[in-house]
Amino acid sequence: MLPPSSSNNFKNILVCGGSGFMGSHFVGHLYHTYPSYRVFNLDLLTYAGNNANIRDIELHKAGVPLDGQRYHFIHGDICDRGLLEELFRAHAFASVLNFAAESHVDRSIISSVDFIRTNIYGVHALMEMVRKYSIPQFIQISTDEIYGDVPDGYSHEESPIRPSNPYSASKAGADVLVQAFIRTHRVPAIIVRSSNNFGPFQYPEKLIPLAITSFLEGKKIPVHGQGQHVRSWIYVKDFCDAVDTIMHTAPRYTIWNISAGNLRTNLEVIHRIADLLGKDPKPHIEHIGDRPGADHRYAVDHAKLHRELGWAPKHNFDAALGETVRWYQMNQEWWKRIKEADTFRLHYEKQSKAQYY
Ligand code: NAD
Questions:
Q1: Tell me: the pLDDT tens digits for 15-59?
Q2: Whose CA is nearest to atom 36 of ligand 1?
Q3: Binning pLDDT at 50, 70 and 90, where does residue 129 land?
Q4: What is the number of the ligand 1 atom nearest to the C-alpha of 79?
Q5: 6 CA from centroid of ligand 1 (Å)
Q6: Is the CB of 21 inside a 6 Å radius of any atom of ligand 1?
Q7: 194 lines ligand 1 (CB under 6 A)
Q8: pLDDT value, residue 9
Q9: Which long-range contacts (CB under 8 A, 24 or more apart) does 26-29 make?
């Protein structure tokens, strides 16, 4: 049951996709940083959603009377317009942030229907509600992958959008849809385009948690091509801090790249993890075929965010990677449960052999 809309003087914030990796960190960040915010988390709990990621908040709020509680979970779909109507009508959100998405490139190559549905249709449904209920702020979590391959130099906020795979195309579709709603309807939206995040609670099909957990299990790590693809990495706590800065200080109708500038090849990342675990990486690495349409390099420039809003990352890449490795060492139950489930195993059988059909 949700609290009545008028209870207390809380500022109501809706986070969509708050049970996933980045969304759960951001929900925790808001909850613990702003005692006057009441956070609603709307999440469909797909294979990537996991309420164990926010168990500390559930424990924290236990025993608090309903109208004083500052965190509420709603199990539902951002494509469900009826449900959105109910929520938007009842809660007068001060801000809506959309993290909900299908987020794994490999899965989008095998089948992209859910990507188009959630990442485009779902964003459209949210935009219509933001418009209809005159929500003062909407923040769309977009990605550096919409810029496509960046052979050299850096992508700026005005760089062309050239997605290469169905995931990045669906995110690009959402990104330009939000831009169109800004221009046509003056919807007070903001777009953030982040580079690759890493940290605790990341689903272990993604490179860093896959490498850490595979080392811990004594298994092979599938590496696309020669492992020379370059990605730009940001610790999830720095990402949350950047979104907080944007949420509280950025003007409406703006677009922001978020990055910490840590460019590394996939092989460099795996070797660093091996160092942290005291392992020899060679016997663990298995080179597999490249992704069709693979992007060789992503690199975004976050100079605008630094110059105009004064934001800078606080975490050193190696230290944050060390913290992440320790978290996966200490929380084996969390990831073993995921890796044993069919939703992981059935996909991983294909991912680990570069099978895209
Ligand atoms: P994730 O896959 O870990 O989590 C996605 C969450 O969205 C899950 O909790 C899932 O249950 C929920 N969800 C999916 N479909 C939904 C629907 N129809 N309705 C409601 N909830 C739904 O993703 P993540 O890695 O935390 O990424 C969060 C956002 O940030 C995504 O939009 C992604 O595109 C973007 N992003 C991710 C990265 C990265 O490195 N992970 C980088 C840049 C941008």
A1: 999 999 999 999 999 999 999 999 999 999 999 999 999 999 999
A2: 143
A3: very high
A4: 18
A5: 30
A6: yes
A7: yes
A8: 86
A9: 26/97, 26/99, 26/240, 26/243, 27/54, 27/57, 27/71, 28/54, 28/56, 28/57, 29/237, 29/240, 29/241, 29/244
